């Protein structure tokens, strides 16, 4: 393995949470201390766009990429993710739970979209839902909108994460009308009777036109749809991410995206992550089996480092959060 690009979603957010038990992660600490720091990608969407050299539009334009992956012809015009979510109001504001966290059946999704379609059509939008958790809007008019990716807000407070830009007011009026329709929808009434959370809003993100994607990896090992969609668009083979670095097939250039590190993880999970991934990565660099590595931790205080064999031996570098080069 000559070059490894490792993305660990959610770990930066977990590290920023105070924990009752001190957790030593010596592999991670040494990698962060010895690597050349760079500005961290706060979301997985940002990290993936950087990895595949996808140019920023108004947003990270992942909506047309995943729409194509889901079987939608999204090669022309502007596409926007309009994912179904539950917004829960609490003392500190609204917390977002996406369809993956609360469960949404295909029949439920189809019924909700059928009711929302006339509303979107009247506003000049096409609404399509090829999968229960991924819905897409395609407007007949120009849209200028900046949004926050779903992975940056899922299970977190979204008070200051609403869309901005010249089209924000018009688009949010459509979302507000959709919320009114969803409020008493039979699907949601049935869900609440079963003790399930209703789908009470849409989260807009990832808007843009189909981007150019630069494939420089020989393999992408991940489970996230966005990563798999970018891999397919760049004609790169993909497969599920293994449980540890030692099980990664040997290729010249590999992109690895671990599963989301849960906000409620305990210290033992963090120690296992360090033993399975970060310590072997450091040993591989020091032993010359890995020539270069890029490590990205996503979260509100995301960080990233680049390392090579020489950097891995800089034992005098004290652990601490890296500073961008």
In short:
This protein has twelve helices and twelve strands.
Jot down its keywords.
12 helices, alpha/beta, 325 residues, 2 domains
> In what range is the share of β-strand residues?
15-25%
Categorize the overall geometry.
globular
* Secondary-structure element pattern, one letter each: EHHEHHEEHHEEHHHEEHEEHEEH
Distance between the termini: 25 Å
- Gyration radius (Cα, Å) is 21 Å
Structural class: alpha/beta
Q: How many H/I helices?
A: 12
Which ranges are low-confidence, i.e. pLDDT below 50, for 5 or more consecutive residues? none
Description of the structure:
- The protein has 325 residues and is α/β, with parallel strands linked by helices.
- The chain has 2 domains: 3-54 and 213-312; 63-208, no CATH class.
- It has helices at residues 11-15, 26-34, 44-51, 63-69, 99-102, 106-122, 150-153, 168-183, 186-193, 225-233, 267-287, 309-312; strands at residues 3-8, 36-39, 79-90, 93-98, 125-131, 134-139, 201-208, 219-221, 238-239, 253-257, 292-297, 303-308.
- Strands 2-12-11-1-10-8-9 form a 7-stranded mixed β-sheet, sandwiched between helices. Strands 3, 4, 5, 6 and 7 form a 5-stranded antiparallel β-sheet that branches.
- A hairpin with a 5-residue loop joins strand 11 and strand 12 (303-308).
- The longest helix is centred in the last third of the chain and has 21 residues, at 267-287.
- The mean pLDDT is 91.
